[in-house]
Amino acid sequence: LASLFGCVVGIPDAVTAITVVALGTSLPDTFASRTAALNDDTADSAIGNVTGSNSVNVFLGLGLPWIVGSLYHMFAHTGDG
Q: Is the pLDDT of residue 81 over 80?
């Protein structure tokens, strides 16, 4: 579905896939923060939710692929070059 949308709009598949994944991880946090802000007088839990979800997204979204890529290149390197 994302590939078809990207084809119709003229966006490469990789960009469409990254956008869909970003929306999939951000929209639930947005609705949770909205609900927390509406149900709390000071919106403290909404701020905590935003801070926590952004931290997890940054540290796991950047750190995990970095570690996997580093380990792959460390063990896949043949050393004959």
A: no
Q: Where do runs of H (alpha helix) occur along 1-81?
A: 2-9, 13-39, 44-76
* Phi-psi label, residue 34: left if phi above 0, alpha if psi -120 to 50, beta otherwise: alpha
Q: Give me 12's structure tokens.
A: 């490469």
Radius of gyration of the chain (CA): 19
Rounded distance between C-alpha atoms, residue 35 and residue 14, angstroms: 32
Q: Model pTM? A: 0.55
* Nearest-10 crossing angle of helices 13-39, 44-76: 150
For position 67, what pLDDT does the model report? 92
Residues with Cβ within 8 Å of residue 27, at least 6 apart in sequence: none
pLDDT digits (tens, 9 = 90+) for 1-28: 778 888 899 989 888 888 888 888 888 8
* φ/ψ of residue 79, rounded to 5: 80, 10
